[in-house]
Amino acid sequence: MAKDFVCTHEIIEAAHRAWSATTWDYVAGAALTETTLRRNRYALDSYAFLPRILRDVSKIDLSAKVLGQTLRAPVLVSPMGSVGLMTPEGVKASARATTRYGTIQTVSSVAGQDVETIAAAASGPKIFQLYIRGDMDWIRKHLNRAKAAGYIGLMITVDGPYYGIRERQLIHRWSLPSIVDPSRHIQASVTWETFAEIRKHWGGPTVIKGIATAADAKLAVEHGVSAICVSNHGGRELDHGRGTLDMLPEVVEAVAKRAEVWVDGGIVRGTDVVKALCLGANCVGIGRLAAWGLGADGEDGLVRTLEILESEIFNAMGLIGATSVAELGPQYLTRVVPMGPTHETSAFRHLGPEALR
Description:
Elements: H1 8-18, H2 21-28, H3 35-45, E1 47-49, E2 64-66, E3 69-71, E4 75-77, H4 91-101, E5 105-108, H5 115-121, E6 126-130, H6 136-148, E7 153-157, H7 167-171, H8 177-180, H9 192-202, E8 206-211, H10 214-222, E9 227-230, H11 244-255, E10 260-263, H12 270-278, E11 283-286, H13 288-320, E12 333-335
Helix pairs in contact: 1-13, 4-5, 4-13, 6-9, 10-11, 12-13
């Protein structure tokens, strides 16, 4: 079925048909008024391209280096919890899809399957993302398992000390087990000192996810991170935050190439990816978009989603006159006033004027 999808609109519609209303609300929704979610889209729509013409764009190289790995395109799959809600095979389907496509899978510690099972499902590079639910002995045990399973890097998500108040879920009286996990409160006590101890024990590449300011980006670099992921958790935790593309330039400036800079948050189109790269990101992460692909047709659906996204990136780069990721920069962008409503599916005009519900 996945091979028949010609655009992302069809993938989203297929996921919507396949899922229950509660699963759709879990994936598509965000905190309270969903203002942060909408600002992610608004920030992306606040840039227009400045195309250059009469350049030889007959060959375009989309490959990118991330943590020493060569990716087919500068896109990786962000960590997602409860992936079993999206597709019966859970994270194994996502791991196989990213391996087939040629990118990195980031595996959440609350994804619903253990790190060994996911590692055995596919040979591609994987990053282990850890939510902290115990003391340092608990943390060391989980890090040791991930290292033994061959994960190439460690990601610590830092923007969720408390679970966001997600009214779409609350209206249906539905919550995930992770919300009521009695050990969840431990995440709220994590500090830079905790992070330093974790990084020392891991001993390999580390990524800190959830940076929203230049001040914290500087602290992250001082603590020796390999990469910073500019993120607001897709708007799912703190309401009334900034869009991630509004955060990105100040973080890039603060990091000053001392670490890689990644970004996620509402990225669903190839033009979104190109805009992020022009503003200094080394790569982008996709969450909801990857979930929709999995919901549409599991492993094959995610592969097809990545292929369509790649075709959009290729097309956009060719039309603005850039032949490689390294060529992209702010000279290709200008600020504009966004058009129309912004919500989780507003980038897909043919789905209609309002989000699917």
